[in-house]
Amino acid sequence: MEHSQQRNEALDGLRGYAALAVAVFHTVLNVDLRLIARVQEQDFSSLAGAYDRLNWLVLRTFNGNIAVAIFFVLSGTVLFGSLRRLQGSAASRSATFLIRRFLRIYPPLIVCLVVMTGVYAVFGIPVSVQGFIENALLYSFPVNGPTWTLSVEMLAAPAMLVAFGGYLIGREAGLLVAGVAVALILNIGGLNIGPIKTFWPYFLVGMLIPTRIGSAVAGVLPHHSWIVIMIVLLYFSGPTTEKICCGLLIALLYHRNDGLLGNILRRPVARFFGRISYSFYLYNVMFLEIICLYLRKSALATTHPLEIGLAASIVVIVLTTPIAYLSARWTEEPAKRYGRTARDTRPIALDETPARIQ
User: What is the value of pTM for the model shown?
Assistant: First the structure.
């Protein structure tokens, strides 16, 4: 079944909740950075003490690493639909797609970096000119660390064009062959192109979801299967099961075989945070860095990092939300409107929101 001409509000909601989870995850870890090695990177069975086990459960529930996977798979799904709706020659469609990706990602990013540099100066956090430029170019990330995911998004865009070319030639089989070929090229020894080689399969999984393969898989899954998928994804998944579970979860939502989960994700609050999630992702870093800078000086941050981190994450969310709303309205929306004028295309129904995690 084709859903590309109707906005899928459940995907908005998933994006919104994932963005909130990221803010909680990063805030808790930044209150006491030792939690990364002591808890977050450990297996549950290897943890000593009830408090560390509680920390592990909370960090897995608000799992920023899983959010990485979800956002990249979502990008593959949504952008594949966008490519299918573009009209014109292959060169024209490719140029339009790449221009839109640039306009979708860069204007909000540059404005955010300017704001963060100014605010950091007030709080005595130094930002060098070189650091600003390198972060703006997505070469390194000294101002806003989580923007490394945007470099993955930009590098994934031409790779998606290659995979989509395979789809035009050979439908699902062509998409798979071209996608695997891209993965092999990205993993050529000595090719230094950053984490895109690790995360390209997530985009490919996402691209398969709107196809007949995704529809068939979503059709045979019980609509309550999302419960098992979420439990495995958050608490038991490894690199392979993570890709599979993210694909299954988003396939259920995309093809509307989502049951109670879809109803939850279509609620106004979830959709609101989904629509501001890119700006929320950009700006929450500013608030959590400043707040955690001061909290780490407190003895409570060492003895009770979970409680302090959860309380601080609420403050981060409250402070970030209005800034993210204004950014979405004044930087994201104008850039998207301008991008829609590029070339000849039918209206885009789904929001082309890039990944935002770490």
Answer: 0.92
